[in-house]
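Entry: Transcriptional regulator
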Amino acid sequence: MNYTSLESKIKNLIDRKSEGEYWDFKQEWHKDNERLLHDILCFANTVHDKDSYLIIGVSDTGEIVGVGEENRRKQVDILDLLSNTVFAGDNIPEVRLDTIEIEGKEIDILTIFNSYTVPYYLKAKCKRYNNIREGYIYTRVGDRNTPINQNASIQQIEMLWKKRFGLTQPPLVQIANRLENKLEWAQNEDAYYNIYKPEFKLEAEYDEDDRNIGEFYVYSQTNSRFMYKNLKIMCSETVLKEFQLVVLDSGRYETPIPRWGFAGYDEWRHNHKFTYKYFLKDSIDYKLQQFLFDTENEEEVYAKRRFDEVVLYYENEEEKIAFEFYVENKQSLIESYIVEADKKFYEINTNNELEAKECKRRLSTGLALNRALQEFRALYK
């Protein structure tokens, strides 16, 4: 189990004392693979956007009994089951098996990850299986699975196909997902539009506010000249969301402005000790950054590399919270890293001594926290 709060999630679900649309209790492991496969298919084919959980070692009423050794599976057993199943389109659900301990008892957690390549169904079934059907689509609605000898309803199947094509999500989420495929977008000067859904547009214009004070990371670049843009994400003529972009290294690299982060406290716990900038990899601003980044442009690649040295990238909000808690307990270590990072030279072009000192501190903090983040991930991998 990694540093994300899987244990906390499962405890909260067990405390509800009932099953739901994305979790199910099992007192013991399935006696045969056919029923296990049916459960996996039902949870893989969900319209919602959550990961789903088979919680094994808990009764239907939420009583923690612990998982027994009889029929107990390992990760390799689950993967073998799925790889030996003939799925339509070779489209295989993604799963992971973890074991946690609650009240001194082991519980197995089979996570079935959310996917947009639904529906999953069998092209052919194993000869040993008597009940599961090829070509049938199984799903879960509320706390009930589609019976193993029945097909999901037309309405449920329609919703799964809509999910596959992004039609169950609001326009902003659809645009964010489509940003991951640059081939879907055409450029017209400072604007982009989606070639399959031309009403989805990105429009950028230079910020007319002539500010000459940049954030600390502008001095991470070879050339500290910078400018700002405003970018609008639009559906037809409706502005769905606006972002501020910063153009760095005299025009070589542009990115959405990263978010502010704060970690650690002074001895009186009045002020944060470490101020830094970050992105969440599951956020739309990160997807925008990746969309705008030209990996074929060597100057842009170099500028981004220098930018990334002093800006943090988290997998998600959970990792951010966990890392900041880690930093809270490692403040002396972080300070020693900052002292080492201070040795790196940055040309800070400002006549304001206080501003230069603050920029240098934040550049060194970014370097130090990135070093600590690597160690944190290695420790909790």
